[in-house]
Amino acid sequence: MLRRTIPMLILASAGLLLIVAKFSPFTVSWQETVLGWFNILAAVAFVLGAGNLLAVNLEQISSRRPGWAYAAITLFAFAVTLVVGMFKVGAVPNGMHPDIHLAGAHDVPQAPFGWIYDYMLVPLTSTMFAMLAFYVASAAFRAFRAKNIEAILLLGTAFIILLSQTAAGMFLTGWIPEDSVFSFLRLDVMKRGITEHVQTAGMRAITIGIALGVAATSLRLIFGIDKSYLSKT
Amino acid sequence: MNDTNRDGSSRGGPNDAGAQPAKRPNTLLWVALAVFGIVGLSLNAFMRPEGMAKRFAVVTTVERVLVEETVPAAVEESPAAVAADPKSTQDPDPRRKWVAPEDAGLAAGTLRRVDGVEPIRWETRESVKASEAELLRSEIKPGGPVRIESSPIDSLGIWVAALLTLFILSFVYRDNPFYKVAESILIGVSAAYWMVVGFWSTIVPQLLGALAPGFVREYAMPSLPASATPGLDAALAFVPLLLGFMLLWRLAPKGGWISVWPIAFVIGTTAGIRLVGAIEADLMRQLVAAMKPLVVFEEGVAASGEAIRMFDFWGSVGSVVGVVGDLSVLTYFFFSVEHKGAVGKTARVGIWFLMISFGSAFGLTVMGRITLLLQRFEFLFTDWLNI
Amino acid sequence: MTTKNTEQTPDGMRGFFVRLGRLDRRWIFLAMGLSIAVPILLKLRFPEVPGPMARATFDSIESLPDGSRVLLSFDFDPASKAELQPMANALVHHCASKGHKIVFMALWPLGKQMADQAIKEVLLEYHGDKYEYGTDYVQLGFKAGNEGVIKVLTTNVAEAYPTDASGAAASGLPLIADVRDLGSFDLVSTVSAGYPGAKEWVQYGRESMKPEARLTSGSTGVQASQLFPYYPAQLNGLLVAVKGAAEYETLVTEKYPVDRNSERLEQGRIRMGPQLVAHLLMIALIVLGNIAMIASRGTQGGAR
Amino acid sequence: MLRIRRVPAMLAALLALVATAPLAALPPDPVDVSAVDRPGDGGAAVFVRWRVPAPDETARAIVERSRTVAEATREGAAETPWILVAEVDPLLGQGDGYLVTGIPNSKGDRHASDEIVFRVAFIGTDGERTPAVEAAPVVARANAFLLDKIPLAIVCVVVSASVLAWILLSRAGWSVKIRRIAALEAIDEAVGRATEMGRSVLFVPGIQDMNDIQTVAGVTILGRVAKTAAEYDAKLEVPTARSIVMTAARETVQSAHFAAGRPETYDESSIRYITDEQFGYVAYVAGRMVREKPAACFYMGAFYAESLVLAENGNAIGAIQVAGTAEASQLPFFVAACDYTLIGEEFYAASAYLSGERDQLGSIKGQDLGKLFAAGAIIVGAILATLASLSPSGPMAGASTAFRAFFGG
Predict the structure, then answer these.
(1) Interface contact B281, partner C, CB < 8 A
(2) Do A137 and C151 touch (CB under 8 A)?
């Protein structure tokens, strides 16, 4: 009862409440309140995440399993950033309330927390993101092979778009006059035609499908038809 | 539908191949790399007049003094009583505030220094590149609160950022200790970073701010706005707090099942909000956008000057393609019927539309990805190596 | 470096392409790395021809009467700064040159830093004398809650942002004191890298804006494909990736040139040079990949 | 007698003559000025109505309103008690009236404004302004139900009804046959292969939190995959980027092990939180892939730019990769780099498809019914739009705009 029916009741009532709330100005704000609650819940749940991070890494260090040194680095980096951030170590005092330490700004570059953000977090995250340039190239070489019509359309369109996006596109087909009957052969015209008519149609149909998928999934959850999240213990 | 992606290349990826041969050539490679790196860097450092990774800082000294308004004699509460103990009032006395020593109010006499309270002085530093520092140096008058000085802490930062960038990029060659170090640092720093951001931008203002506004205003966030209904806000704040503890109860050895309640609450609200949101924004809006006229006319001006409507060939072709695309891709998503016969052919057309859409989307994003790597190289070449 | 291959490989031209088909992907990575690093050092640059979407974004701002109130939302973080900061800088310069009153906000926690940078690098650099904090521009900073923030903005701005980024009460700032909801803005422009971003602004923000008000967006190439259905009906202007930034930059700096450190408003065009080389490499890779497949198809009697 | 009775009429005519002659330019004042709260709205909107006695003489109409309590306290309010709302075409006042929006709420009540007085004045053809006529005070109140959301309510009911109807039909025995979805058939094959090769299975539930329906769908698919993994006794690894997702994933995997009858093989530590940061999480997963070399990788949930990093690294280690997301911008990368991809709606149908339960399969048929309605709406809309385009002034034009307006066009 406590493990199955009540959670299902909570889910159904929360879901129906927010569906109805959308239709009256008095209750529209409930959506904001609930989203605010979720943010608080997610922030409180950080403790859970950190707890798990610590547990796993400590266990790896204590059992001296291979790679424990890296777990130590993770814990050290975590501890330093957390302490420096939570207690606003070295924070710049607040202009209007310099006497209140915790009102200061700790995410400025001169404070240690800001330093870690500028010189460690930003380079690491943007370099990981930049790796995509390599993977886009290897995917183009490996996956864009004309094995059947679908693959030909995939790589052909990518080919046109790539050409049209640079000076090469203008160089190859820029000479065809805009208003001539052959203007559709211009790469930028082709690109606009593809992106504004074909791609929008494809994306539009996917979006419509997704909307129906979201609706069906939500209904399955709210009416307790899909109960996989419930523990069967 | 996508068996097409199984290309003929052998399953074993290069990383397998790299592992088989004896360790020797690999260590040789790393040694060569290290030697080349050190020699190159030191050459670069000595040859460049202003050196590598040089950063400067614009340092401004800031001072604040505690003042209070010079209360006119008429007020019955004598100012002397208040001045005796500056921390006496529960929330900071509105008439008392911290201002810069050269504040206009002090000069005009409407504000009076509170004696016995030391002024607070601190420095704000702003890191700038060497080129910007030269520019600013000319504009700053010597002796004033602002000065420019070289900033070793920021130069160290550039070195750390550059090394971490190279450590991550090394993953492109193969998984190696340098990448593992960078990965471990990234996981530790980012987990703590988001916890701190979550704490200071959500828990303090919204949770603690609702439960104990006075305390938060006193010790952490003086400008926390007063809520119109403090009692209700405090009560409402208990709900996420309670749900949070139920979630954390999973860490406890027994009774972890209670965490299903907050999860059910989150899934329920998500389902409710997304159901209506998806139908309103994705379904209805896209249906309207899909209702295109198959025959399109253009407003034009005829020779005789009055406006007439001309048949727009390419516009009509675009609309027809759009509508056909929508319907055929929807057919592809049809679950109840196998893709055979008429439905099969329409679904096939739908897949073609999808493939063109994906090819186009792939092409469009290549530029963005290349920009990202470009920026990392720019950082390495200009900020670090100062080429 | 090349993988051991067990199948027998024909020699001569076809053999070359068959081996090419099984090329170790790290050679491709090396080729991509060089095709970007080398052009930067040689500083290659090419002319830009503004397309319809960049022009529509430009007109959306240009057609507003001077001094209108605009809301700029910085919904990206340093990871996509390379693509989006050039657009943000050009956008701020354009609005400031038209004397628009600018309200800065961010739906991404790191977006606030991006906005601060645009304020420092462009707004105060070129328009510092005419722009005073509180009356001409305001920095509201980051607010957690993703699209929830936009929904709150549609009903009550003061509730979403009781204070500005530095903690000063919003009612004290004349520029936003009488702002009630999104209806009080003549233009809302988001520079967006994903979620929350342009899609959420269209979904939740568009309805409660004035009908004649403009909603434009700058976006990464990835997200652009999702925004095309909204252009031009719901999104009046759309800048796509660095090319959109370069085109919009060209339009803005032609109309409102700047006299000093102009490279802050040329980041888009500077970055388009290496793009050409990298794009040509990608095209070559697709072609070579297919030649290799055709060559290997001959030897194994049909593709597996 | 006759003359006396006629005198007032003559006087009136004389006066009118006199009135118009030197002041010929001043149009007659607005008549029947009234202000009414707009029904069925969220408040802050009022219809201001008036009649124009002499349309040809009146060029413009000026609408002003009194200050609210809050506005009255602002300094400089005393001199300008009336705020200019709009200067519009006088004929707009007829019929429903001119809609005024953006009226600020009163301090005390978030759902109603203070009492506000509207007044209307006309401007003659030569710029002369008539004295303003005031309407009765009005309060812009939020009403119980938003009328403009009725079409949305109808479409929601239609979509929900089609899903629920099919669930009931499936219980009543109707056939719920669903076409083969290649990507979902591949799950058993992928997990089987991992077990054969003695290598692990990696499941990535996306990088968003449980407040994104894609993550919820991803976790439900995890339940099915975990059940298969438990049956094959394959090692399943689930790194998560959110702590709530970790909790939900542990719940689901634990109950999957129970359903497979192997509760003892459930290992909680195989489901762990890494970091909230998108690329910190991807750095871990990419490194983990290259070291552990899982034989099967599943990417089910909300993904952004990191999709290609995961897919290319997975391909480099030779794993079977099955992806599923409703993030349209990432589908091109998954389609290009993975072996199987669930595209948008297929992703949402996956967990129901895998459950095999009649109710869940019924709901997929319900989605199809919804698609039929959508396709029908597009066809009708396109035909109406075409007819409207052919004869813009004909009856069809009105029908087309009305049909589009229903869907919020």
Answers:
(1) yes
(2) no
Of A7, A79, A206, nearest to B260 by CB-CB distance is: A7
- Number of structural domains, chain B? 2
Compute the nearest-CA separation of D149 from chain C (Å).
Answer: 12
User: Which of B189, B193, B284 has its CB closest to that of D407?
Assistant: B284
The verdict on B368 touching C (C-beta cutoff 8 Å) is: yes
Distances (CA, A) of B116 to A98, A209, B63, B86, C199: 16, 71, 16, 10, 57
- At the second CATH level, the architecture of C52-265 is 3-Layer(aba) Sandwich (3.40)
Every domain of chain D and the residues it spans:
26-145, 149-167+360-406, 176-356
C interface mutation test: which of B367, B372, B383 has the most C CBs within 10 A?
B367
ipTM (interface predicted TM): 0.78
Region C152-173: mean pLDDT is 82
Q: Do D277 and B186 touch (CB under 8 A)?
A: yes
Question: Which residue of A lies nearest to D145 if distances are taken between CA atoms?
Answer: A24
The arithmetic mean of pLDDT across residues B375-385, rounded, is 87
Instruction: Give the mutation candidate from B243, B284, B365 for the D interface (greatest D CB count, under 10 A).
Output: B284
- Tens of pLDDT, residue by residue over B259-294, are 888 989 999 999 998 999 899 888 998 898 888 888
A29 to chain C: which residues are within 8 Å by CB? Answer: 155
- pLDDT tens-digit series, residues A167-224: 677 677 767 776 677 777 888 788 888 888 899 899 999 999 999 999 999 999 999 8
The CATH number, out of the four listed (2.40.10, 2.30.31, 3.40.50, 3.30.420), of the domain defined by the range D176-356: 3.40.50
Site of tokens 């919904």? C75
Chains that touch A (3 or more CB pairs under 8 A): B, C, D
The answer to whether D305 contacts A215, with C-beta atoms less than 8 Å apart, is no
Architecture of domain D26-145: Sandwich (2.60)
The residue from B150, B182, B212 where one domain ends is B150
Per-residue pLDDT at B18 exceeds 70: no
Q: Per-residue pLDDT tens for B325-345? A: 999 999 999 888 888 888 888
Residue A46, pLDDT above cutoff 90: no
Instruction: Say yes or no for a CB contact (<8 Å) between B269 and D377.
Output: no
Q: What is the mean pLDDT of residues A66-74?
A: 90
Residues of D in contact with C223 (CB under 8 A): 329
The answer, yes or no, to whether residue B79 has pLDDT greater than 80, is: no
Cα distances from C164 to residues C134, C141, D386, in angstroms, run 10, 7, 50
Share of chain C above pLDDT 90, in %: 26
Question: Which chain C residues have a beta carbon less than 8 Å from that of B17?
Answer: 3-4, 24
Chain B: give the shortest CA distance to residue D177, in Å: 6
- From the list A25, A154, A220, which residue is nearest D111 (CB)? A25
Q: Which of A200, B326, D301 is nearest to C225 (CA)?
A: A200
- Closest CA of chain A from C36, distance in Å: 10
Neighbours of chain B (3+ CB pairs under 8 A): A, C, D
**Residue D12 pLDDT level (bands cut at 50, 70, 90):** low
Residue B216: inside a domain: no
Specify the pLDDT at position D371. 92
pLDDT at B230 over 60: yes
Boundaries of domain holding B93 = 55-150
* Contact assessment for residue C45 and residue C270, using Cβ atoms and an 8 Å cutoff: yes
